[in-house]
Design a protein that fits this description.
- Residues 314-482 form the Transketolase-like pyrimidine-binding domain.
- One of its GO terms (biological process) is generation of precursor metabolites and energy.
- InterPro entries: PDH/Transketolase, THDP-binding, Transketo_C/PFOR_II, Transketolase-like_Pyr-bd, Transketolase_C, Transketolase_N.
- With 627 residues, the chain is α/β, with parallel strands linked by helices.
- The protein folds into 2 domains: 25-290, 3-Layer(aba) Sandwich (Rossmann fold), CATH 3.40.50; 306-626, Rossmann fold (3-Layer(aba) Sandwich).
- The protein is 34% helix and 15% strand.
- Helix 19 links the parallel strand 17 (561-569) and strand 18.
- Helix 1 packs across helix 2, helix 1 (26-52) runs antiparallel to helix 9 (271-280) and helix 14 (367-377) runs parallel beside helix 15.
Length: 627
Amino acid sequence: MTDTFPIDLKQFKKLSLDPSKPKLSDEEKATLKANIQLLRDAIVLFTATGAARGVSGHTGKPAYMIRYRRLFNFSSRFYDTVFDEAGHRVATQYILAALDGAIPPEHLLRYREAESHLPGHPELGLTPGVKFSSGRLGHMWPLVNGVAFANRDKVVFCLGSDGAQQEGDDDEAARLAVAQNLNVKLLIDDNDVTIAGHPSQYLKGYDVAKNLEGHGLKVVTVQGEDLDDLWSGVHEIVNYDGPAAVVAKRLMAPGIPIIEGSAHGHDVIPIKAAVQYLQQRGYAHLTGIYDNIKPRTSPFLYLGSSKEIGANRVVFGEAVNLVLDTLTKEEAARKVMVIDSDLEGSTGLKVIHQKHPEVFVPSGIMERGNFSAAAGFGFAPDKFGVFSTFSAFLEMVISEITMARLNNCNVLCHFSHSGVDEADNTCHFGINNMFADNGLSDVHSYLYFPADPTQMVAVVKRVFFERGLRFIFSTRSKVPWILKENGERYYDDQYEFVPGKDEVIAEGTAGYVVSFGEMLYRSWDAVMRCRKEGLNVGLINKPSLNVVDEQMISKIGQTPFVLVVESFNQKTGLGSKFGTWLLERGLTPRYGYMGTTKEGCGGLWEQIPYQNLDPGSIILKIKQLSQ
């Protein structure tokens, strides 16, 4: 890694622009254009290092974003933080932190590396120079309204996007801003691109400017790559008394080969695209930097699981297809609806879209409404809605889950990216999944977390047409197949899943570890190593998370200890409940539970050992409990 940042950021020239003037001078425009180009080049250079080290992340839309951060040199008229409701634009915040001297520019070359404090979404208190946590997407505007309430004498900026504006809480924020005449100014990047494609195609009728105007905001639509047009729009909204927005029409990642105008600009810039771009910009001599950056491979070699790995989040969709294949196209369309929330490629729905388009509904970044639409489809006893998004977003649909339960709706929910393994840091941790079990005792819903691809298929096939709410979880990371001690697959093609039943992976007399999902194979490694040392520990797979298997809990509760191992939030996960279940039944083994306890460290596989959930940490806990 180089000791200096390869592009000289000292070329950046501070500007102090006067928003009362409707036009930029030739000198101001030339300086602004040079600043934009400089930072665009730098962002392309350093975000592509994330691709080189094999991690994901986000680019930052450099041209559009940079021009606002230092636009007015923060005179007393303006609140001194420009907020952003799109956490994906994290690279912009990092390069601004470098310009402010909060981090050395060369540190940017560690983008998305574990423990670099440069994760894929900005987090207040983690990265020096980052002034707020943007969260996921479309979460900031309501908070910015509060900042505007607290600073009535200032103009408060919030950067937005056409993707973020799809979230329903932005509509609520718009109504409040207009009703209270808050001096909030939105600068919205309208590039007509989200992860799943183009909103103009999959969400016909959606128009950012018209929507905001309908709420009563002053809206100015401009061409985002035209500095004169853009400045004219900024001038107009800054000098307007009340909430107003500039909607900037532009391509995603303008000028960057391969990814311009496409959803690929959402993630880290691919090395090939970065190299082409940098060569065109006269930086061919810098492209060798990527040759010296390699992915960090996990040092862990696991006993008890296969070398082959499978993506359970994709297998979910393949399993749904197996169910739909048993129906005619007409039967499937009449009986099943699968609705997407702009994440079909990430949550397994893409394969359903491709093979069974008759049941598929493309939709936007509208988790609450989409979940309820799936529930409404499943309002009739013989119809079934299917909904899927990231587990972190489960927290957004709790009220809708309650409404679906009260209306006896049939919804199969797939929440991928559960736990912390390969998570895009803290705001994307899927660790509060037990929140889905929020019904009363007389109305039950089921939470399932399969341990390997074969079990995922079995779970989906078994519960697909069951009535009520069913939740299936998977991880972002791929998982191996669980193996028996003789090397055969524990779950084979003959395996049949039984809801509510725990499964013995290995019998034990010294005590039992209870685990599920991606932590099962890690727990199995720890258990096998203990058994090799003569400590006869058993292992239980608990794929049905919120159901007590009376026979199994009685069995393991009479042994010396029980240890629950999971990557859910230690405060709210299975471990926080299991000890109570034991005590309620008069069972008093020594008890321990391990889960996620800290904000993330970035990277990929590193998140698990950072939370002390690696096999070595599990072994230590087992030995503590067995003493």
